[in-house]
Structure formats: C-alpha cells, structure tokens
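Annex B. Sample input.
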Amino acid sequence: MIRYKIFVITIASFLVATASCSNENLEDTPPEVSEPNPEPNPNPEPEPEPTPAPVYTVDNITDTYFGVAGEENASKWGPYNVHDPSVIKVGETYYCYNTDVSFGSDVRPGIQIRKSQDLINWEFLGWAFNGLPAKGSSYIQSQGAEPFNSLWAPYAMQVGDEFRLYYSLSSSVGRLSAIGLATSSSPEGPWIEKDLVVTSAADGSIQTNAIDPSVVVTPNGEHWFYYGSAYDGIYKLRLDPATGLAMVNGDKGVRIAQRGFTNGTVNGNIEAPEVIYNETQGMYYMFIAYDWLETKYNVRVGRSSDPEGPFLDINGLDINTEADNAPMILAPYRFNDHSGWQGVSHPGVFKDGNGQYYMAHQGRPGENRFFMVLHVRKIHWTENGWPIVSSERYANVAQTDISESDIVGSYEQIEFGYRVVPGYANEQTSPDFQYSVDLELMADGTINGEAVNTWTYEAPWLTIGLNNGETNYKLFVERGRDWENKVESTILFSGLDNNGTAIWGKKVD
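Annex B, continued. Sample output.
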C-alpha cells in the first residue's frame, strides 16, 4: 500500500508539471491560484480492508490433501480434516464445529471451528477449547481411566443470545464417556464449560454410549436431547431450556432407536442422531448414521409427530424395534471415472434462514479412506414428506428454469442397494459402493429406448414409469455441479422409489 501511494503521488506530480510547461507560452493564461491547504481531518476514515479472495473454490477443492494435512498447516485446512460436523448460521455466516482429526498426524484436542459465507470456502478459526474440558476429564478419571486426547462429535446451537456447544469425550474403556456443555456469547468463543449433561460407564447397566449429542427445540419451547452410539442404541431425555442441562439431574434417558441383528450379531453400528423439527411438514425427523464410519457409513431417517416418538420409518415401522430401517438417503457411491466417496454419514442438518435445509457430512475418498472432506448437500422433500439429498455436493449453481427438452439426454444413475454386513470395523472392510449405470431419457418419452419404461416431467419432478406403469416414482430435478467431471452446471435428480430406495442421477450429455 505504501509503494502504491507513492507511485500515485509521483504520477500526479508529473501531470501537474507537464500541464504547467504546456501553458507557459500561451497568451491570456490566467495566473495560478494557490488553493489553501485544507485542514487535516482529525478523524480520518480508515481505509477499507481489502476483501480477501476465497482460498477454496469449487475448482480447487480436491479429494486428497497431502500438502496441508498436518496441524502445522491448520490455517489452510478449509474444508479438509472435517469429521462429525455440526453447522449453525449466525447472521450471514455459517459456523462448523467438528471432531478433532487430522489426516496422518496427531492433532491437539479442543473441537475445531470453521466459518463460511457460502458453504464452499471455509476459514479455519482454531479450537473451542485449549485442551480437554476439565469436567469431562475428571469424570473419566474418577472411573479409573484416562480420556482420549481428542473431543468428538460436537453439537452447536443458539438459544437467545447464548451459544451452546455440546462435546463428547470418551476413553479406551468401553462405554466410559461423557457429554458436556460449554457456552459463549459468540459463536467463535471464548467458551466456558458449564457441566456434564449425561455420562455412561462400563458398569453393567443397560445404556448406550454417551457421545454424539443433538438437541431439538419444539414450537412451545421444550428442549429434547438425543445421543448414543452402539451398545443400546439411541437415547432421548429432556433438557432444562434455561440451562441446557438435563431437566432431571442424572437422567440417562430411554432408548428411542436401535438396529436389527443377524445370527445374534448387530447389523452394524447405529449412532449420531440428528433431530430437526420441520415446521412446514409439522414433523420431527431423526437422521441416523448406520455402519462403520470409514467404509459403509450411511444415513437413515425416521419421523414422528412428537419429539418423544415413536419415530417411524417409511414403511411405518417403529425405528426402536430390532430391525434396520428405510429410507437410506445417502450411502457410499461411485460415479464413473472417480474413486467414489465412502464414510458419508454423521449428518449435521441445518437451515439457511430462507427455509432451505442442508445436510453436512464427511466424505472419505475411495482412493484413501483416511482423508476427510466436508460435504454439504441440499435437502429436498418428497410430496409425502420424506427428505432426500442432492446427488452432488452444493456448489451454489444458479437455479435457472429446466424445460422438458433440457431433460432429454444421457445420465449416470445410482440406485442405492444395500448389503447387510453384521459387525463393525473388522467386518465392514468394504464400503459397498453403489455404482452408477448409464441411463438415456429419450425425446419420445421412453427410457433407454424401451417402450415399457417411460418418463414425464413437470417441474421440478421427473416421473419414472417402469414395466408399463407397474412401478412409478418421482425424482426432484435441479441444477448442480458435476464434481467428478468438473462441469460447472448440469442437471441432477434425486428421489425415493416406492420402497424407499434412494435414486440419484446426473446428466452427462
């Protein structure tokens, strides 16, 4: 800036000197009048700070990030090293809080914080805590163990002028964990630890693991708390809205969701409940993570008219029965010419202030499952009130009109099948990618040129009819980025078939 100012002054002096020389031989040239020097402004306006260019754009976010992985590069992490995100919007800024992770290296504990204006370029702000919170640590130590040197699965919310940050702290002793609460007057901190909300112990009692918190606020102001991973499933309990702590001290809650079993072994993990109230639908929705976080991790949904449940799946089954539930709205997937994305769960659901819901989650590239990239997807709602997510990550693509003629063309389609693999990390070594297949929507209204399979379009819904109309379902159509092929804008679709199976697609020609 200093050199720039000197340069401008020098040019201005040169122009004045040149003008004087060119006029000195002209007749009737009026004499120069010296303007008095203006009085200096005692309160000069500060020069505006230049707006920095975004570090990360849709064109330079990569699947892997060897060059910035370690903690010494934390300021450059942006959307990288994100696991178990919780996102809130404050004013025009989104804040993301997530588990303490780093690819290929140890990382300091404290809950990572990022912010963004556009859900694409994320600025790493640092950590909420300078180490492990004292109350959570003391609880685990009181049980004769040492806590892990990392905090997991935070949940952030705003209550009036107060920001609440729930954290999870666990240990190497099975089910010895704690969920605590810290508060601040700012989404960026500083954070003050208040107390523990719920704990669990390896004491032989029936309870789930006290990690993975979520809170929903009802229209009449009740606060309900959901948590849990493995063991006895997902639990709920009521909070005191004034404090953010359990309404009844020591309340562990009761189970509200679990999974099925095969030959006496649970069909994979169930954890990370995220519950929202959709006022348009008049329903509470519980998004749940199934299976192992590095591979088969996927998202299931149940809904209820009451925050206490029961939450039912798309087939009307109580998700608290010993069964796996549909719909599965997101699972490991692989479009053509890409290594795919696995570990795509632990959903963080939030709104943009204008009624649009989004789901944030981590994605682990197929080429190396230890990288963790923040994904954000739009949520849409089927005509019968079930959430679906966009088939591609959010990229702020303009939503211009899509005509019937625009729909005609070649697509890559993914139909989300599922293979039950009982167990956890040792058993679920494969992500079970759902692969894309070619699909042609013909101008004559047929699919792949087969007269028994047809399509029609009435914006924003693409209706698919199979086997002469024996099967019909609708897919939501929108514009979005083709991340795999680096195409700025294409046509996407997503929806559920009659059985609650998710179907995705993107136009490639």
